[in-house]
Design goal:
Blueprint lengths: L1 E6 L2 H23 L2 E5 L6 H8 L8 E5 L1 E3 L9 H8 L9 E2 L10 H14 L5 E4 L17 H5 L7 E4 L8 E4 L1 H4 L5 E6 L1 H11 L10 H5 L5 E6 L1
Parallel strand pairs: 1-10, 2-3, 2-6, 3-5, 6-9, 9-10
Antiparallel strand pairs: 4-8, 7-8
Helix pairs in contact: 1-2
């Protein structure tokens, strides 16, 4: 299910979300000596990244990763890895570890198997998950148009990471599965703008998860998703 938190400005949202996330990360570090967070790409989280990167927590004990990544060169303008390095792994957060999803030239079965082992050993379950949402209701790279969507949303999927080839968006992708993301201890959905609000309302008013995969995170009873929205 979900709880909605609305803000008058994106700046207010960024401050509130960064305060909450930094508190959770520090608590995780205090309890177990480390913390993990997966973030989403796009322009929406840039302001949040900047605020979070200046928080006083022990970043040397934090591992940051992405919920998904396009299989492009990390120097590409379309690389989420580049986005995170330029906007989050800065300031006080420059000492955090980064778990690369894009490794090597080809997303072959061997690479995917190695990444799954590493993700299970280093990251999962995530202490913090920051999701975004596309205009089609996709989240991470769980695209309704992809042939892999049933596998991606299968709660019994044993693979933490999987390859996705969307038909309505460019590039081959690597993404965490719903099964792995749903185990996260704190899940946030970060939305901005009236268009995204309308998409969210549409998601609430239907129940076909394969049509709008975000529904799995806001309608599944045992999942508590905190929705942060600003104009």
């Amino acid at each position: 299910m979900f709880e909605q938190n609305n803000f008058d400005t994106r700046e207010q949202l960024d401050l509130a979300l960064a305060d909450k996330v930094s508190e959770i990360l520090q608590q995780a570090i205090s309890l177990k000596g480390k913390a993990s967070i997966a973030v989403s790409g796009g322009s929406t989280p840039k302001g949040f990244f900047k605020v979070l990167s200046n928080k006083d927590i022990d970043w040397t004990k934090v591992t940051i990763t992405l919920v998904d990544e396009r299989w492009v060169d990390i120097h590409s303008d379309d690389s989420n890895t580049r986005l995170v390095h330029e906007n989050l792994l800065q300031n006080k957060a420059c000492t955090a570890k980064f778990f690369h999803l894009k490794q090597g030239e080809d997303l072959c079965d061997e690479t995917l198997a190695d990444l799954n082992v590493a993700a299970n050993n280093i990251l999962l379950p995530l202490d913090v998950l920051i999701l975004g949402m596309g205009e089609d209701g996709h989240t991470a790279s769980l695209f309704p148009c992809s042939a892999q969507i049933k596998q991606g949303l299968d709660i019994n999927n044993k693979n933490a990471l999987m390859k996705v080839e969307p038909t309505t968006a460019p590039y081959q992708r690597i993404t965490f599965s719903f099964a792995s993301l749903s185990q996260s201890k704190n899940i946030f959905l970060h939305l901005c703008g009236e268009n995204k609000k309308q998409v969210f309302v549409k998601a609430l008013n239907g129940d076909d998860v394969f049509d709008m995969p975000i529904r799995k995170f806001i309608q599944t009873e045992h999942i508590d998703t905190q929705v942060y929205w600003a104009v």
